[in-house]
Amino acid sequence: MEGSGGGGDHFILVHGLGHGAWCWYKLVPMLRAAGHRVTALDMAASGVHPAGMDEVASFEDYSRPLLDAVAAAPAGERLVLVGHSLGGLNIALAMERLPRKVAAAVFLDACMPCVGRHMGVTMEEFSRRTTPEFFMDSERMVLETSQGPRPALVFGPKLLAAKLYDRSPAEDLTLATMLVRPGRLFVDDAMVKDETLLTDANYASVKKVYVVAMEDASFSEEMQRWMVDLSPGTEAEEIAGADHMAMFSKTRELCDVLLRIAGKA
After folding, report:
1. Is residue 3 part of a domain?
2. What's the CATH number where 138 sits?
């Protein structure tokens, strides 16, 4: 999903676990109406991407659509990367690889890693703060990949309703139950486990803003602010009344926050 506007910024939007470019359908026209170019991406084996998750060998392969999009951006174009939930790890990798291309990075209720620790630290902390019962009717599975058996997860409709879309319109929850696909957290991936991957010279040099969804029933406000504290210098914004899917529950408020961030980048 791509389109161009005038001379504004270019927002690149990255979804979270099991989701796809479709989850930005309300936000994209708002940003375009404000004069910006917007690209909503499917990571590998997500949304309408043709691969199956069992075909995705690594976190780098999963992130490839984003890495390619950032690399292909013309010189001088101001990119604003927006990563939601697990998508925070995708944009972190792009920031490390291509920091000069990124004017600002927005972590929307997202996994935001820090320099000096591996990217999986945020997921480890989430696991520490929750119980297995959190995932309710979600389906766990084992995928046979080229790297051997790997765990995957499909969000169940009850989990979606209670923990992710609890303040979002019923239509958007229904859409999600039809479109979510199996997702992987890649906690066993060598790149995600690499404590030297993210550097001060690259990742930490990019302007970072964390957008806190104040009513998230899955990623608590405390958990979100813990990630902000791990990366000194990160700015924080809040969206009151937003559930985990702020792009559905508080679309206009999210758009306004993104436009403000882009204006200051």
Report:
1. no
2. 3.40.50.1820
Q: Of the residues 63, 172, 244, 249, which is catalytic? A: 244
Q: Which one of 172, 216, 218, 249 is the catalytic residue? A: 216
Query: How far is the C-alpha of 27 from the C-alpha of 20, rounded, in Å?
Result: 14
CA distance 244 to 153: 18
**Would you say the pTM of this structure is higher than 0.85?**
yes
Is 63 a known active-site residue?
Answer: no
- From 85, 138, 218, 249, active-site residue: 85
Let me know if 49 is a catalytic residue: no
Of 25, 77, 89, 65, the closest CA to residue 245 belongs to 25
Residues 6+ apart with CB under 8 A from 33: none
The whole domain housing 136 covers 8-263
**Domain membership flag for residue 2:** no
Model confidence over 206-255: pLDDT tens digits?
999 999 999 999 999 999 999 999 999 999 999 999 999 999 999 999 99
Determine the average pLDDT of the residues in 98-123: 96
Q: Is 168 a catalytic residue?
A: no
Residue 265: pLDDT band with limits 50, 70, 90: confident
